[in-house]
Amino acid sequence: MSFKNMIKTLNMENHDSFAHNETLEHPAYIHEITGIDPFEEPEKAMLAAARKLDFDWLYSIPKKAHRFETGENKKHIGGGTYVTEWGFTGSAWSDYEKYTDTEQIYTYDPFANHESEEHIRKIARMKFDSSIQDQKLIGDGAVISGLYYTTLFQWFIMVFGWEMFLVAAAENPKRFELCIDRFKRYSSIYVEEYAKSEIPFLFCHDDLAITRGLVFAPEWYRKYIFPAYEEIFEPVKKEGKKIIFVSDGNYIELLDDLFTLGIDGIIVDWTFDLAEIFKRYGKTKVIVGNADTVILTYGTTEDVRKEVHRCVDAAKGSSGFVMKCSNDLPQNIPIENMRVYFNTISELKNR
Asked: CB neighbours (10 Å) of residue 345?
């Protein structure tokens, strides 16, 4: 039973195999293995695919799909929300208040009744509201975790935009620290909901880095972000639940800090040396990833097979490995590479 397999992995008890998680957004492959059109029946198609591919962990079960016409890459779906083409569910984003003055940022109160309040509440609850129902749908087939998308740092990107966030943080760090404190308290409310819910662990996200590395010097995170993380995560740790963390990009300089804060596992993308990560942390921490979407998209079937073996071989000796293509599985990956990818994982998982 895949639910139990993921819980064993989370508790570093999976000695005989490894767990598997994917963000599967490839409609042609889903249709091929299930016989169900994911554009017409997204929930039914994903449930069937998850069982067929023996997934152990999913964030959610999609309820809506968006079919794009040839040449179309954006749709307005109402309420200032748009989706851009990404697999069959699309990638959602919203128009909201724009900030042009740092004074607006220093005085911003997420608890106040202003134009962006509905927007930030939607962000806060992304992939959370339906998680309990999704777990009932899939039963013991997999763990449904939801995703808390805006742990802290992400709020400033989502609400103010990168440029104004960076300007405000640099221009007056003391005043920006007050803004950090307000969003810390805002996030704490939602994280406490996770802690008290039936969801077995907290899966949380903050884009602390980009592909080439950290956005700020490590000391900045240690001074302004990580003390707030301690408070945000406190109710989860009090409930005895684990925390798995993900950021875009290469945040390797912060791993020791994150683990010291009590984070139990991380998702790492292709920019990390997976063998080195397992050498340093593989005995005590859950490591998820780091198959490269670029290899699946542009490589040969033999390249794909080698990529899966590289990840699994790097994890030898660890009981906390979760196989994943870190940058997801979108619609433009050749279907023959999708077949080889999943067939190789199945062979190695069950050997």
From this structure: 22
Sign of CA dihedral 129, 3, 27, 305: positive
CA dihedral 91, 306, 6, 54 (to 10 degrees): 80
| Pairing status of strand 265-268 against strand 242-246 | parallel
Distance between CA atoms of 125 and 127, rounded to whole angstroms?
6
> Taking a C-beta distance cutoff of 8 angstroms, is the pair 4, 307 a contact?
no
Distance CA(253)–CA(85), nearest Å, equals 33
Strand ranges in the chain using DSSP code E only, listed in sequence order: 19-20, 57-58, 74-78, 81-84, 91-94, 143-144, 201-205, 209-210, 213-214, 242-246, 265-268, 286-289, 321-323
Amino acid at position 331, single letter = Q
Distance CA 294, CA 191 (A): 34
Cα gap 38→322, rounded to integer Å: 25
Identify whether the C-beta of residue 9 lies closer than 8 Å to the C-beta of residue 321. Answer: yes
Parallel, antiparallel, or unpaired: how do β-strands 91-94 and 81-84 relate? antiparallel
Closest-CA residue to 333 (of 303, 296, 290, 300): 296
Cβ atoms of 329 and 293 closer than 8 Å: yes
Torsions phi, psi of 221, nearest 5? -65, -40
| 64: its two tokens | 């809506």
Question: Residue 136 — φ and ψ, nearest 5°?
Answer: -65, -35
Residues 6 or more apart in contact with residue 248 via CB below 8 angstroms:
207, 209, 210, 211, 269
pTM exceeds 0.90: yes
Indicate the SS3 state at residue 298. helix
Contacts (Cβ under 8 Å, ≥6 apart) of 212: 249, 250
3-state secondary structure of 211: coil
Per-residue model confidence as pLDDT tens digits over 175-224: 999 999 999 999 999 899 899 999 999 999 999 999 889 999 999 999 99
pLDDT single digits (tens) 256-275: 999 999 999 999 999 999 99
